[in-house]
Hints:
The structure is a homodimer. Chain A is built from 11 helices and 16 strands. Chain A has helices spanning 58-65, 114-119, 121-127, 129-151, 190-198, 238-268, 284-293, 307-321, 372-381, 390-394, 410-418, and strands at 20-32, 36-43, 46-53, 71-80, 89-100, 155-156, 162-163, 175-178, 181-185, 203-211, 224-233, 281-283, 325-329, 352-357, 360-367, 403-409.
Amino acid sequence: MIHTTSRVLTSDLRGHIDQTVSVSGWVNALRLQRKMQFVILRDHSGMAQVTHKRDGGPLEAVLESLTPESAVRITGRVVDAAQVKLGGLELVPESVEVLNLAETPLPIDEHTGPEHRLDWRFLDVRKRETAQLVFTVQTTLEQGLREYAMEHGCTEMHTPKLMGTASESGAEVFKLGYFDRSAYLAQSPQFYKQMAVAAGIDRVFEIGPVFRAEPSFTSRHATEFTGVDVELSWIDDVEDVMAFEEQMLAHAIAKVAEVHGERIREVFGVEVAVPETPFPRITMAEAQAVLRAGGWDPEGVKEDLDPDGERRIAAHMKEQTGHEFAFITHYPASIRPFYHMRPADRPDLTLSFDLLWKGLEVTTGAQREHRSDVLLKQAEDKGMSTEPMQDYLNIFRFGCPPHGGLGAGLGRILMVMLGLDSIREAAFLFRGPNRLTP
Amino acid sequence: MIHTTSRVLTSDLRGHIDQTVSVSGWVNALRLQRKMQFVILRDHSGMAQVTHKRDGGPLEAVLESLTPESAVRITGRVVDAAQVKLGGLELVPESVEVLNLAETPLPIDEHTGPEHRLDWRFLDVRKRETAQLVFTVQTTLEQGLREYAMEHGCTEMHTPKLMGTASESGAEVFKLGYFDRSAYLAQSPQFYKQMAVAAGIDRVFEIGPVFRAEPSFTSRHATEFTGVDVELSWIDDVEDVMAFEEQMLAHAIAKVAEVHGERIREVFGVEVAVPETPFPRITMAEAQAVLRAGGWDPEGVKEDLDPDGERRIAAHMKEQTGHEFAFITHYPASIRPFYHMRPADRPDLTLSFDLLWKGLEVTTGAQREHRSDVLLKQAEDKGMSTEPMQDYLNIFRFGCPPHGGLGAGLGRILMVMLGLDSIREAAFLFRGPNRLTP
């Protein structure tokens, strides 16, 4: 079919009064009255009313056959109509092309529970403005992160997700058949971004999938999610990494606030506040002291913070500094990976941090140990077998610069920024232990 | 250690004559003479000469202990020295900090073969300016692609790489254990980007890893590579997709030419020519006729083009049109997936294309069949079982708009653009049937 008019978005109809245009979209609602037929047509820019007076003709029959969510292209005249609530205009149709008729009834509606909505995620996202906005915001957020990273010397890398050996610990890694051998899915780009640093890539930036075979069923865990990774060469200390991250986040959040702040306020009812830098910092030891003085004494969590502890310390920091973000620094070596650098005078600690935003962990980072002998000793102290890591360990033998970096979860940042209940809402298609479809 | 001077890049030393600065980098070369010690220090911006007159002091001993590729931080005075070939200046060291002493000898040198160089990829990339430049260019290329896509209404999506069922055909898919069941690695974001279209995401853009379990050992195949995917809703026909791609590529190539054209010419000896749009198009039937008239008659390749056919038809198009790019259109239905739309009057063909650049396939695209009944019939005609694809087929039941898209290989684009011999040079860490490390 040749179209003599090109597509106009519903949000642009005001500029086409008294012209004949085509709009394409979904049937958001149908009101078929005795004398009149009304279609509310929705596209990604908004909605418009299509008004047809019954005349017994073919157009009437086509409109009568429509169903909610059918995909249609409607050509008609744009008429200024002050009485129409939807933009004060209507489209008087001349032709209606049914591109894909939706079956009835739809498999989900406003009463459908969250798990069943995930089964029909495409319809759920299509019909909810909140869901649509998540991905619009995600796009701008990524642009903001990337902009900062590129302006500050990063190279965008794509490191392999297929590894010959399980990276950091065998337990949480997916294993697959790889021709006549086995491969593993990368839990993070950790080893490879360090390899890039050793390869002379001065600053590494990567956004890509990471895979965790953890049987976690919380609202903040997924088995596959989008990681934002940075690795910086020639740093003086871990402070350089934290300074980079707070500036990068402040830049990206400012961009989101500028572009979407108003719509986020309307749709999600939350304010995107641009954080001031530097973000406040507190050592893990101080955080523990504060929490324990406040009565926090969870079972089984001795050196780390549990989610309740994270929320409490974030509340404390907010009270003390007015800031939504908080770096927790100097995690004990016992709960950090072997490759985190340790202070010369405190081998029980690491030069590492987590970043909390409104009490949720959104980033882990550290200076890495780049001295081969120290690194080997730290691996041995953790009881690790160094043989499978030989390719990784080799990078420290031939002039590896001092470096450090961070890994952030894109979904977690979105979750906090938009006040989402669950990480499931921050991914297009969530993956969890019980969720591998659609 | 507290540094009283912050890092200066070797390329910026000219602005610091007679000042004391610190430079950080690798020992590119050492010349230890009887009276003088020279170090050529390399960082990602260039090189500089460090000149020290032997005095029997501790600095002399440190310089004497250096090895090629060691990572060092050198603090010293920048001296204007017209006799020094390298930038007409030298650094007279005051202190030398050995951050990571490289073992000797290095495991690779200029005589090392390509496979062994891959084993030591981090050293190979670090020491070769060509390898470094690949990733710098990749970063700009991606920025250019993304810029065009975002300015033209795309949303950046991250679709799952873990699938519950093998996507297009079971044969070339990696399978993994997923808790108490099996999962598969996505061969492409195909089904999911179509799902995003059905979810009301008007235009989808994704850069991410794709996985192919093909035992291919050519210079242009990898088991994991970076895909650039686009999917456009509400298209009139496949021409909309081709027009989008040629504009997007022209924009991105222009950006690369502008930013790196001169350096690419120096380092790779190739000219990055910005292509004119539209790119020439030729149907597969015409292409076959031209090739067969020219004596092309390969065994076993009847309806498709083999790599030789691709090179020949590209040469023909170049001769006819002067253009390096060529769209081959209307591939036979027999060699295209079931979801490619077919012309109403030619059910033996598809509304699809490949894009060749200098004779190498860099993209496959098509309009997709969005009509549920037609799609089902096409799947059945191909002898496919529709049961495992139910989640995918569901998206066509409730108002799926007409749409089409493309999938391009980022490495292949780089390969052609820079005249690389192999896709192995276009990835940081290549993955092939025999290559899962480092």
